[in-house]
Amino acid sequence: MQFSTRSGHEPSAFGLKWDKRSRNVASYACNVHFYFVRAPSPALVAMAENMVSMIVLVFVVSCSVCLLNGEGIRHEDAVPINRARRSVPIKYDIYTLDYFIELVEKIERHTITSGDSINKVVNYVRLLGYNTDLWNIVCGKADPLPDPILNSEERRVLNNMVVNSYSDQSSRREGVVLTSDRETISMGRVLLGICAGLNRDKSLSLRAWTSGAPLRVDNLFTATIAYSLGRSALYKANGDTSDLFGPSGSWSPKTECPASYSLTNTASKATDAELLGDVDGFLLGHGIPQWKKKGVRLGQLLRMYYGSGILYDTSYARCRRNSKFSSIVNKDNLLSEINGFASAYYDRNSAQLTRVNQGRILSLSKDINEKFFPHLGNIAGNSKCSIDKDSADCEIPANVVFVMDESGSVGFDNHLKEKEFIGEIIKTFDISPRQTRVAIVEYSSTASVAVALDNYGSKTRLMCAVDDISYSGGSTQTAVALETVHYYVLRPALDNPVSDTETVQIVIVLTDGYSDDRYALENAAKDLKKDIKDLTMISVGVANYDLFELRLIATDEKHHVFTAENFDKLPELVTSLRTRACNAPINMGLNFTESKDSTEVVAFVSPNKARFFTLPAELFFGVEEIFIDVVPQYGTVTVYASRITDTPGPDNYTLKIGPAGEGEEMQLQFTNLCAGYNSSETCPPINIGIYGESSSLSCSERDCNLPNQIKFKIRRGTPKKNRGGITTTDLFFRHFLLTASILVLNLL
């Protein structure tokens, strides 16, 4: 039995606590801590010694409580099973485009459907809302979505995103989503256009649908714009009180977390959301036959079109829909298609359209055709397209864990500022299951996982979940928070990776004061850093922070410690913290101290982006010469190396190789790496930056969010004959000359 002291608290006799961290009943030593809260006086020690019997009794009772509660008693080496309860329910009812894409990509990447063509995937989703005879004629018959792919809540939400329904009583419209540009789009109409484009038939007979259909039609027009305009013209002539087009609507409870869409007026047969979906579906259907040959996936297609444009042809973009649609479709062509479908629709539904004269269908088609293009200009307009190369989004594949201090000293108002700060950082990351995943751990007297890594694969839902995190108050158990991150977030994530590519682990700890157990904090931080590979732990101290503890937590005392005078100053840290997090390097793990090592690092980079890697000296100390090979695929990359900076690049490097194209092997040669150093602890690492240059736009692998991503592999190399290289000795000599030149210039 050992007594220890704790500083920084009011005097008290002594305390006792036990931890219930494992359900492993095979461990038989309760983790009981006895401590004095201030340096014990002789009288206190004597009192404690006279109470040994009481302490033993409490120990026995404590262990019994652990067992009666169904908790095991943790051995020092036992790995706890996840018991950290989620404190924020998962949000499903968020109707946004990025959530729609998240669900689509979950279908595309599931083991059951990962090999399915884009045609199959589009129809899986289309059938949820459009599974009538007409759509099966226009798009072709298809198989339903297999049951195990989505859970019941995900399937329900996806169904609501596709099914086109309207309630006259509530004015609520389903089948729509909100884009990041605040446009409301009917996604079912978009899918119909893509399906029709994949099965394009410019002379389709609709007589299988209605025997009296007089004209042949283009299935792409019928699946999209001709359908909406033809029906609207007919029903308006039949006495509908609604307008030919529109209306628009509004989202509640707010556009940041859209859960319900209501129209501002009575719905026509061509609402604004449907018309935008029709035009987008038509454009995507028009281009899909060529893009399909490149292996494009549906998720990629939607990301590109609703971003800066289809990479194969950037004239296809949401922000350019008006000009592109007008360049493809002229009024005469559209009139013919409206009239063709309206005639077939009337033939099938004449019993409902009693006030429509069949001889007037062409005239009705002409009228709505003339009015459509001006209305499209009003609802769509021309907006500025974003440019990928200037995007600030951090695309690094990472598990990012925010650790939120919600202790009593923080207070409700500052807790809101904490959430705003976390939200601003999240905005800079590319949130998806294959890029950045985010978890949030709250801590005060206890710690809990508010958001787990696999809860959200889209940014909007994640941001809404952050808003829902509530404040509790309590003490500051920072050590327990780090243990929660270690055992209940990162360790399970590493044991069950979602991708074969390299992923960095980033932990951002926010705290406003002293932890309640510095000794436990030191051990928790040390264990976390030792066990978790590729870990970058950043500490953010606010107001009354303890700089010693911040340095204790951080993986790099110089670069990974951030401080702010108060919570109002937190936003000033966003840019620098984001830069540090986005540039977090991955340990290549190539072991040159062994005779053989088959380790191969696989990663992706986009054009005008960079990925950083490091090789610690312990993996090459004592080796005179090493070779590192880099091989790109789907594009061209340039490699920069340095022993000085951990983010080498065009403006800061000592070795550059490339650019090199697809399949071309680049080899880095280093000699006398640790000459003059006594140990691997003092010898500097090798740092590599891999920069994406041009892309072949052909990456359709599951780990590619966009087809322009460039895949590359890093592995141990062997000497190549007749191949030049620059050795590390040359690199240091270059650096020496550069430094000397700068000094001379300064003296002059």
Automatic annotation (TrEMBL):
It comes from the Eukaryota. Signal peptide: none annotated. This is VWFA domain-containing protein. It holds the Pfam family VWA. Residues 399-577 form the VWFA domain.
